[in-house]
Design a protein that fits this description.
single chain; mainly alpha; two-stranded parallel ribbon; 8 helices; 2 strands; 72% helix
């Protein structure tokens, strides 16, 4: 079989994108991850809401961020400014899911192409695309995670400045946009930790699989 460096690069990029977007999608799509925070963060005591009211408000907000037409937050008040921020969030969430689907589809297409054309990805320095995807993505996010761990509050502000440039509607007034009362910063910190953990585990799995495969071939 002929080896192809472009095929290796394309597979590495698709693999890295799929792992990145899947890790980001995990806390978005797994609603029990949020529900598990209601008790430990004492949201019922802090807000005076029932657990069902908190879940309903969160679910309706998330439904909108995942494409529902109507915006609502259960019994909680919201403003047009607050809704505008969640509209921006919806764009990012849907973009992540589209990139996840596209990267998985492209990766499948590349594998089929390689199979039917008799080509295979090259192994620069004896390593395959999975290794390079895992090493590149893992190294970058370990650095990001280390910087965020030094000052999460600062990292939180920088994140919003990067992804919502020129806007400050993410700075909610708890009296006007009461949804922020059930979305404390500790929850977002745990989302970031979950994403980082999934990324590191995924990258480690890709690297170890490639290393074992290389030894098997030798």
């Amino acid at each position: 079989m002929k080896e192809s460096k472009p095929l290796c690069a394309l597979m590495a990029v698709c693999t890295a994108l799929a792992l990145l977007t899947a890790s980001i999608a995990a806390p978005i799509l797994c609603r029990p991850f949020y529900y598990a925070h209601i008790g430990p963060l004492k949201l019922v005591e802090r807000t005076g809401l029932t657990e069902n009211e908190i879940k309903t408000a969160f679910d309706e907000m998330l439904d909108y961020c995942l494409g529902a037409e109507e915006f609502s937050t259960g019994v909680l008040k919201w403003s047009e400014e607050g809704k505008a921020h969640f509209t921006d969030v919806r764009g990012l969430f849907l973009l992540d899911l589209r990139v996840l689907g596209a990267s998985l589809g492209l990766l499948a297409a590349v594998l089929l192409y390689a199979r039917f054309t008799g080509r295979r990805p090259a192994r620069p320095r004896g390593r395959g695309p999975g290794f390079w995807a895992g090493a590149g993505l893992g190294g970058a996010f370990l650095l990001v995670g280390a910087l965020a761990a030094l000052d999460f509050n600062r990292a939180f502000v920088v994140f919003h400045a990067l992804f919502f440039p020129g806007k400050d509607n993410w700075l909610f007034d708890p009296a006007e946009d009461q949804i922020i009362n059930i979305l404390p910063q500790e929850f977002f910190r745990d989302c970031a930790l979950l994403i980082l953990a999934l990324l590191v585990l995924g990258c480690a799995a890709l690297i170890l699989f490639d290393l074992r495969r290389g030894r098997g071939k030798r």
